[in-house]
User: What shape does this take?
Amino acid sequence: MPDLDFVQQDFQRRLRNIPPLGMGLSVDVYSPNLFELVNKLKELGLQPGYLEVFKASAASLTTVRRAVPDIPLAYHGEGLWITQPDVQESPFFQQDVGETVTQLNSIQSLWLNHECAMKQMAGYSFGTYVPPLYTQLSAEVVAANITTVQQAIDLQGRRADGTAPLFLLEMPPLTYFSAGTIPIPHFFRLVTALVPCGLVLDIGHLWTVYRYTAASRRISLERFVGEFLEEFPLERVVEIHVAGLACHESVGESKGREGLPEWIDAHAAPIPSILFTILEQVLAHSNLVSLRAVALEVDTKPIEMIVEEYAEAVRRFSFLIQQTIARGTAVEQSMELTPHPASVQEPVCQSDRQQLRDDYARYAQIISGQAPMTGQEWQETAVEATGVTRYRTSYVPYEILHWGGDLAEMFPQTCRALAGRDVSLEEFVAFWFRSPRPLTHSYDFFLLKIERFLEFVAERAPDVRVCAQQECDMLRQAYAQANEVVEPVMEMERSR
Ligand SMILES: [Fe+2]
Assistant: This one.
């Protein structure tokens, strides 16, 4: 295991290249219209201190960089499943990392933020993030994969001044359940002991950790946050996120036994005031010494709501955030850093990787309802299984049938023909998870849905196959065109 001080020093050297940014926004290029949003904020004297931009087409990102030359940019990546023991063997990993670095370079990003979560594991695919297994081996694998990504950034993303964007790992939300053998903050402490990455602490995600672990049955939220922050490597937190929470449409407005709403991460939803109370508690903690930025995550949210929430957050927190950042940078400047090469982590051995791969195969089978909850990492989850049941019986079917493309709207004729043959769409959910399958392209849930639905129809109603194929061809064509079409951001720029 590498010397902790050595890793910490490497982190400190990399952190020095990130200037204090203060309050900003984490946005999507397409939704809502980014330029309309920025112009509206500027009119009100509320120019964001930075923008963290979600993965988009190369052309859109270049346009954003050109259009807001006075605003620092950072990058929110997607599709690098660094939690997975076999990700580096995936035929698409090198390509995905290469694309990520190109995007970092195109916006001169200060960092690469990526969730510590995945949408694919052991040959099974999901539409939204599921959290990693919180185990020691899993933490080692995450650290090893981050090392590889950071090395690629160091090689291909190095700027003229010799610095390179820093990998920031974001603690993911829980969607009704978690599984593992160690506490979540301990997991992140293990990762940061091995690799010089920074962290993103998302306040809404933290609320879901309280809500969907035993803590909410044991202690108050305030006490939970206090205990969590003592254990979590807060000294590595470079950015804080605050986003909305809401009940999922497949579940509705319901409350559990503890009287807490069944909220999950929801960027389009309003930010509940309880998250600002937690933010105050986090900002006041003396271990928060590497903070550079706090963003409201507002992708897919209506512009009026963003402006209102951002104005309120600036009024309430911008001074406090500046103070917190200044407190940390004062400590940093007094640090003596010895010149060292970048820290290197030992690779995780093949048998450990295989063990974790098996654990993730079981994980996918458990949460999709194909296997019973067995294994040490599911012991605590099984005690109060309502969360995982909720995920399996409501959330996952909704995801496969409606999220990211509603099947009945995508394949109207095929679905009518299936109904006429008494083939229920619910059967497609079981078909989807029936067996693992090798990856055929970089993660794209929409394309995967089309591919799998065609296979389902071919098996269950072969005489409807031609109809499904026609609808499938039209969808693929429309999707390709939509990805090539003049980007909305470019149109906006032209009209300015
Ligand atoms: Fe976030």
Observations:
- The longest helix spans residues 303-333.
